[in-house]
Amino acid sequence: MADKSTNWTELREFRAVDLTQSFVLSWETDGGSLHIDLDLCLSPEHAFYERPRPKERACYRPAVLEFPYCSRLETTAVPGDADAVSAIAAGLGGGKITGLRLVDEGRYEMSGAFGRVEIHAERPILRLRESST
Question: Mapping DSSP to helix (H, G, I), strand (E, B) and coil, where does residue 103 land?
Fold first, then answer.
């Protein structure tokens, strides 16, 4: 059977960013949504791209990746359901992202230094946060 998944590079939410050079800082749930705090790598084509700071290799900005109406989280180590979403999110670590893909309608798979996480939610929303510098 052919793989019908969609890579993050084909999703409009991630235009002009590089997830594979971005880092997860933390995970949390709030009101049924999953929020992932990121150091997001912006490509030169992004409207908010700035020349990298002296000690950085690329333009990084604080951001949040939200998965609204998250009904289920599963990791390679801990399968989950709606009752366990908060506990699983709290137990996930951070680190570099290696991939994100839309597996099926409402089902996403994210991988990285934190392992593999399957997210059952609505289409993601990516927002830059105000920088404190």
Answer: strand
